[in-house]
Design goal:
Length: about 280
């Protein structure tokens, strides 16, 4: 099973449209609202958010080798053939992702340049509204060397074919998407807005971002569990309430200590989602 093309596209769109995400090659992995990235770190980050294996990919020069070894095909670039989920790549200079549409009507998301017109040295966050951006697909001035296109089975196909969640004890994009769907929140496959200090309490949650603003999914979960206040931030109290709710509904969280979302609690959550208990 691969990752989710839908979550990949939404992660790129959210970072470039909803967040104030700046451009800086010297601080390129600070990818959160108010942070910084460059073109390749953003695409690699979004792939990871969507559950794709990116190997040791770290910049434009090694993306193709790592991704084509893991289910992606390298295709000749033609603007008429692009479609959502494609990665457009110049092996030396630039990359972006197609987030919607196809052909000349497609839209891409990308990290472009900092507010000073330079690769590094500016202020964190998007100071111009265009350091990271979405726009109509275009032919790069230095040329796109290829299209990288996912050729494997995706989590999107598993959902559309009526598949149930794999009970594997890892809360990735597919599990989060189903939790969001049943709780009635936006479905993007990512638990956003968490804080790094709380990370030890949810070790089995792998589809997560950290900007401290709270998650709409977690707020909905906290309402259902009776947690107050509903901050959208996962802490030990929220995990304890989740474990209690799961046990009350007949699911086994044995093996995890109270307040720790490990693999046992994750498996119980996945079983409850397969049973439709959160709708």
């Amino acid at each position: 099973m691969g990752g989710s093309i839908k979550v990949f596209c939404e992660a790129m769109r959210k970072a470039c449209e909803d967040w104030s995400l700046g451009y800086d090659q010297s601080n390129r992995w600070a990818i959160y609202d108010g942070g910084e990235c460059d073109c390749s770190s953003l695409v690699i980050w979004a792939l990871k958010q969507a559950g794709f294996d990116t190997g040791s990919a770290s910049y434009t020069g090694d993306m193709s080798a790592n991704l084509t070894a893991r289910g992606w095909k390298r295709l000749p670039f033609s603007i008429s053939s692009v479609r959502a989920g494609d990665i457009l790549l110049n092996d030396t200079y630039h990359t972006c992702a197609v987030i919607s549409g196809s052909g000349i009507a497609a839209r891409i998301a990308q990290a472009s340049i900092d507010e000073l017109g330079r690769a590094t040295g500016g202020t964190a966050g998007d100071q111009t509204g265009g350091e990271t951006n979405t726009r109509q697909v275009y032919t790069y001035s230095r040329g796109w060397n290829c299209i990288l296109r996912w050729s494997g089975t995706s989590d999107d196909e598993a959902v559309s074919n009526g598949g149930t969640l794999e009970v594997d004890g890892s809360i990735g994009p597919l599990t989060v998407s189903e939790w969001q769907r049943q709780c009635g929140t936006i479905v993007d496959g990512v638990v956003s807005g968490q804080i790094t200090d709380s990370k030890p309490f949810f070790a089995s949650l792998v589809s997560v971002t950290y900007d401290g603003g709270g998650s709409s999914l977690m707020k909905a979960v906290q309402r259902k569990l009776g947690v107050s206040p509903q901050t959208g931030i996962i802490g030990r109290g929220t995990v304890c309430m989740l474990q209690g709710w799961l046990v009350l509904h007949g699911y086994d969280v044995g093996g995890d200590i109270a307040g720790y979302l490990g693999s046992a609690t994750a498996r119980a959550l996945q079983q409850s989602l397969n049973d439709g208990k959160w709708s």
